[in-house]
Amino acid sequence: MRPTPLRLRRSIIGLVLCALMTCGAAPPTVGRPPVEWLRKFARPFATCEPGGTDRDLAPLRAVVGDARVVALGEVSSGTHEFFQMKRRIVEYLATHMGFTLFAIEENMPDAYRVNEYVLDGRGDPKALLAGIARRRRTQEFLSFVEWMREFNRSGRGRLQFLGFDMLGSTDSASAAVTRFVARAEPAYLDSVTHAYRLVATAPRQESRAAGARGLFPASVAAGHKIRFSGWIRTENVHDGSAALWLRGDASRKNVVGGTTRDVSGTTPWTPYDFTLDIPDSISTIRFGCMLEGSGMAWFDSLAVEIDGIPFAGNESLDLTMERTDRPVGMDISVSKGGAYAIDLDSTTVFAGKRSLRIRRVAPDAPPATATWPEASAASTRVLEHLEAGRDRLVSSSAPADVDRAILNARTIAQMSDVNVGPAGKREDIMAENVARMLDQAAPGSRIVLWEQNLRLARRVSLGARLAGRYGREMVVIGFAFHEGSYNAVAAGDPPGEQLAKPSSPGSLEWACHSTGIPRFILDLRSAAADPGASGWLAQPLPMRNFAFEAIPEPIPVGQYYDALIYFDHTTPSKSLP
Predict the structure, then answer these.
(1) DSSP string computed for 543-563
(2) CA-to-CA dists, residue 162 to 2, 197, 469, 485, angstroms
(3) 502: exposed, middle or buried (C-beta count within 10 Å: 0-12, 13-18, 19+)?
(4) Is 403 helix (H, G, I), strand (E, B) or coil?
(5) In whole angstroms, what is the distance from residue 194 CA to residue 212 CA?
(6) What gap in Å lies between CA 99 and CA 93, rounded to an integer?
(7) In the prediction, which pLDDT does 327 show?
(8) In Å, how far are 74, 278, 427, 508 from 546, measured between CA atoms?
(9) Which residues form the signal peptide (predicted)?
(10) What is the distance of C-alpha 358 from the center of its chain?
């Protein structure tokens, strides 16, 4: 089973935050970048590739200092240079600075199995990686895990591989706890069976909506009236509706948005539209077609008018969907084997040769017979029982078996708790898991975290919670690049090389590119002594959060990250077969 966090009935907000295609809007104006300051404080390193001398990473000592937590971000999970440089940093921290814990956003039991390999050599690392997130199933990450095993085997140190997430299937975790209790404490088996029956019959996680989504050039529409229209046909749409939507954001916050009225049931081709006044402050406009619930919907003849003048499209965006056999400028990726399919249909059209079709292909889930609050309370009681009885249980079972049962029980209880909510509960729990790792380790232990930039940034998500707990004992290192390519790991599509547009003037990456230094480490905190540099980093500054972004949202970079790893050029990671 997987989690089903509570959501508003309309899932537009969740959809429009997904990965989107790029467009040609201009980034917002920011202060002149302090290129000379960047050249002065940038610390070039020789290579991202491991295996040679690590003397070029000596600047990390000053960056990390006495921090207990080092958080390594990334802009893309499909970039060779990011994988390799993060590995080099972990190697350096484990070899020279006493770091003994490595943690990643993976389901805790899945990571536990990888940890058994890196500590004791149990299992096949390639097979173990098949059980973790697809974006990390790369040759680079496999080589990193194999290096961890060799590091531990050599006696040079001890580095654990841990997960701090609870999401993912809990079926195997439930079965593992049940088997352990049946053997170690059969009198408690009925309570475990009852608790996990509630978890199994709580509302299933399933996608309840899917859509095609794109990015509209904000510079064209900002300060104007925009009308979004199209024709929609539906067949047996129920438990939801079909719609067009559009929203405008400024500084990562939704400012304006609209949607057509709900369309459900079976309806013929019908025109729909809505009009919005787009403020001057808008930096990003996202739009799309959506089907929520079951059934099938077709969308055709999409059009945008700006102050009554039709938008003709550009090389990056084709609203007619007639240019190729895939929409140009709209992302239609869905989970492989998931509940929905999105394609262009030549058999049902309003005009031209194709329409966009969104359909639910999975059967509806059976009705739930338990609630998540019930499941959460019962699974938490199981966890608390095992934790309270650990000393008693280890008298008749191996300590490792007891601890593994507790870990599995904790995963189930946390997953259930996330489903109860509120929003942000997952990040709260992940931060607690990281803290537990440090608290349960030997005094003075230090941990390296590996995730995306925004997940670890000091002002948002998990990073904000950890920063509140550890303050300056945590160092957050963001990653950035100017141009190159990356391995796309879009849901529903096989990995493949994608080109990233070069950064734009005014962005952080463009300023780094202007130094002429191909790769470097930069301690952003050193800007405090330079008013021009500190002011530049404190203002909202465009910086890519994802490799596909050509027009990134402005963020206060100096408040998000303590240091930066920059590459002028990147290449794709190598996916495992």
Answers:
(1) --SSTT-SSPPEE-HHHH-SE
(2) 20, 28, 20, 30
(3) middle
(4) helix
(5) 41
(6) 6
(7) 75
(8) 8, 25, 20, 14
(9) 1-25
(10) 24
How far apart are the C-alpha atoms of 230 and 505, rounded to whole Å? 35
Percent of residues in the chain assigned helix, strand, coil, to nearest 5: 35, 30, 35
Q: Is 423 exposed, middle or buried (0-12, 13-18, 19+ CB in 10 A)?
A: exposed
> What ranges make up the beta strands (E) of 47-170?
69-72, 101-107, 160-165
Among left, alpha and beta (phi > 0; psi -120 to 50; other), residue 531 is alpha
In the chain, the largest separation of any two C-alpha atoms, in whole Å, equals 78
Q: Identify which of 224, 227, 244 has the alpha carbon closest to the alpha carbon of residue 291.
A: 244
Delimit the domains of the chain by residue range.
Answer: 54-167+420-570, 209-360
**Phi–psi pair at 93, nearest 5 degrees:** -65, -40
Residue 191's CB is within 10 A of a number of other CB atoms, namely 15
The residue type found at 39 is R
Task: Quote the CA–CA distance of 238 and 299 in Å, as a whole number.
Answer: 17
Burial class (CB in 10 A: 0-12, 13-18, 19+), 421: middle
Crossing angle for the helix pair 171-184 and 399-420, to the nearest 10 degrees = 140
CB 104 within 8 A of CB 164: yes
Residue 182 three-state SS: helix
Query: What would the two tokens of residue 142 be?
Result: 């496999």
Q: What is the pLDDT of residue 136?
A: 85
Question: Alpha helix (H) ranges present in 202-276?
Answer: 218-221
**Omega within 30 of 0 (cis) for the link into 422:** yes
What single DSSP character describes residue 53?
A: -
Cα distance from N-terminal residue to C-terminal residue, the chain: 26
Of 549, 454, 451, residue with least CA distance to 509: 549
What per-residue confidence (pLDDT) applies to 103? 98
Which residues are CB-neighbours of 141 under 8 A, at least 6 positions away?
A: 83, 129
Contact 137, 487 (CB under 8 A): no
Residue with tokens 């008298």: 395
Query: 209-360: which CATH topology?
Result: Jelly Rolls (2.60.120)
Give the Cα separation of 181 and 298 in Å (integer): 52
Residue 186: exposure state from Cβ atoms within 10 A (0-12, 13-18, ≥19): exposed
d(CA 576, CA 554): 35
User: For the chain, how many residues are written?
Assistant: 577
pTM of the full structure: 0.79
Going 554 to 556 to 561 to 563, the CA torsion angle's sign is positive
Rounded Cα gap, residues 300 and 284, in angstroms? 24
Other CB atoms within 10 Å distance of the CB of residue 325: 10
Three-state SS at 48:
coil
User: Which residue, among 206, 381, 345, has the nearest Cα to 269 in the 3D structure?
Assistant: 345
CATH number for the domain whose boundaries are 54-167+420-570: 3.40.1660.10
What are the per-10-residue average pLDDT scores of the chain (577 residues)?
Answer: 38 34 39 90 98 96 98 94 98 98 96 96 94 85 97 96 89 94 97 96 81 86 94 95 92 80 96 95 88 95 95 80 76 72 93 94 84 97 98 96 97 96 94 97 97 95 97 98 83 60 91 98 95 92 77 85 98 91
